[in-house]
Amino acid sequence: MIAVVVAAQLATFAVVTVATQRAVSSRLEQELHVGQRVWEQFQQSRSEQLLASASVLSDDFGFRAAVASGDVPTLRSALGNQGTRVGADLAWLLDRDGRWQAGAEGAAAPSAEVLAGLTRQAARDGLALQTVVVNDALYLVVMLPVMAPERVGWLAIGRRYDDAVAREYQRLTGLEAAFVTSAGSRTRVHASTLPAAQRASFASAWTPQGDHTRPIAVGSDHYLSDSHPLTEGDDARLVLLDSYDRALAPYRALRSRILLLSGLAALLAVAVAVALGRGISRPVSRLATAAQRIQAGDYSQAPVAGGSREIAELAGAFGRMQADIAAREARILHQAHHDGLTGLPNRSHAYDLLQAAIARGGDVAVLVMDVNRFKEINDTLGHEFGDQVLREVAQRLRSASDDAHLVARLGGDEFMLMLPGLRCEAAQAQAHALWNALKQPLDLPSTRVGVEGSFGLACHPEHGADADTLLRRADIALYDAKAAHGGVAVYQPGRDESHLRQLQLMTDLRQAISGGQLELKFQPKLDAASAHVQHVEALLRWRHPTLGAVAPDEFIPLAERSGFIHELTRFVLDQALACHAVWRAGGLDLGLAVNLSAMDLLDADLPDYIEQRLAAHGVPAERLILEVTESALMQDIEYALRMLHRLKACGVRLAIDDFGTGYSSLAQLKRMPVDELKIDKSFVMQLEEGSDDAVIVRSTIELGHNMGLSVIAEGVENDRALALLRHYRCDMVQGYLFSAPLGSAALLDWCHQRERTATTADLPLETDA
């Protein structure tokens, strides 16, 4: 407030000062303009008087006679007497050519330059009127011809510009005046109304800069100046000065009053500011401190009320806001640390509590549990029912655990239990107790349902020294429990490395295609009777840059688990069809078999992609055989049947791979639009006459033929198995007895060589491949 008042007063003072300066400057300019007009009249009057005096003297008969006689003493006397009579300060006589002839008593001869200037003007105009400098004195000189009757000489008389002339002009106008001449940057003051002490300062401050007003400082005094030539074409000038200090004197009292009022206003502002500070600013400052405390999360102190009624109401609002913020923050903190569905601690909070328990030392067991087949519950009965199951499972786990044990939900259907103070054997017994408790039917609002869970156990310090390691190894044990259908599994040393390898493979698999690490191999399928090559099966191989060759049985399940299997299948299809196009160009037209994963049957865009790639590579649709494992078909038989019919509509052939291992029924088999059955190699590799494998193989071949399907046996590795398959009338055979999987170019060479050397009666050829 003080600053506003002071700024307003300063602004007012500045405006008044500027306005005063402008008003004074305008007034001084007007006075100088008037003074200039007065000087013009003054100068004209003096010039006319001087011209009249010179005319009277030049017309005087006695003076003309003296001039005609050339009597110098007489001329001097006449010039002195006549000059004194007309009030002239200077009187000269020049001969008819303008040379000096005589002057008044004691008068010195002027310079030739001065005489030449006067003579030129007089000869041109009939008379001359100029301002000249003679012996450092400034004169207004008029020169006329002396006629008798012809011109016999020139008469020049003049009056001096002295201090008396300047003071006379000052009496008329009130302005200071100075008569000056300039030579370069040097100014000479010949006469002035200024005191003698100021004339030197004026001479150094003033320089000729045209006929316009400008400020000038003469010592400590300030003037507005204007200058004009004394006579036309002369360097001598009249400088008029009007005093700023004199003009501003009346305004100084006004400025003093304004300053006094400004000081009083500032003192009043200080008094009001003090009152405001006591009544408003201090309570507001206390509220600001309370707001900063609230911002820092400290809600322990209520804001202190004080001041006016409005401030007290504001303090009350602050207090209510603080209480609401504290309650809301407590809810947010609870929600940040707990699961919204079950009310259990969430993953982040459970991790912090586990890390704190480990830091305290001692035994800590970690159980990770998930609900078996929970996805089926969600898909069959809906997500709302699944949420009820999760809430009931959480309640069951809390009820079956001690108060000192922590039950948390990690996400989805996965839970964690932290058992501090239990060694691994006791924790395992507790896990079995929880498993048995969970097997009891759950009482839900709408029904009773039975669920089972799998538990993975890891213990500190045996299995890890930090929370990350324990949780990861408990997860590994959980995978082992689910795979073994055993309910509870304890982490086994060494499984971590296997798990880390799987994680690395799952990560690196996504760069395998772009990195050129994947390649296709092709294994021939031969007609069992003729031994001619009819089909080839595309097999994917991965050579990891650091781990070396990775078996398909290892990375294909990882691709299915990570969701990358669709990209792999499309890569295999595109590359295999491209190779087939090359073989056809080389004169080899074979059936091409490509394996599909169970996840591929869920890819709704796969049929469109297959049609597009067949057209792009120019491969007939009937030359492509898609092999689907029997177990994949059994996962969701209805959806699998719909997808098989869509694929069949593309014109490709379909085959059931690994037949005999997927527990399909004949009722399901007859509904499938397949063309081939492929007997799993587990039944073929040890095929012996009279064995159980022989019964299964022969029955499968007869079943396939009775249903109109071709039957292929894979895993043929000896002549004994081949003979039995021929005897059973198997359609095609595949195995290392004929060839290992070959690259595209090697396969083309192998097929050409075999066709050249083999006949229908030949036995299969052994190759180095």
From TrEMBL:
Residue stretches spanning the membrane: 258-277
Keywords from the UniProt entry: Membrane, Transmembrane, Transmembrane helix
Keyword field contains Transmembrane helix: yes
Xref: PROSITE patterns: EAL, GGDEF, HAMP
Domain HAMP: 278-330
Cited InterPro entries: Cyclic-di-GMP_PDE-like (IPR050706), dCache_3 (IPR029150), EAL_dom (IPR001633), EAL_sf (IPR035919), GGDEF_dom (IPR000160), HAMP_dom (IPR003660), Nucleotide_cyclase (IPR029787), Rev_trsase/Diguanyl_cyclase (IPR043128)
Ranges for domain EAL: 502-755
UniProt key word Plastid: no
Domain of life: Bacteria
Ranges for domain GGDEF: 362-493
One matching Pfam family: dCache_3
PANTHER family listed in its UniProt record: CYCLIC DI-GMP PHOSPHODIESTERASE PDEF, OXYGEN SENSOR PROTEIN DOSP
Protein name per the record: GGDEF domain-containing protein
Species: Pseudoxanthomonas japonensis
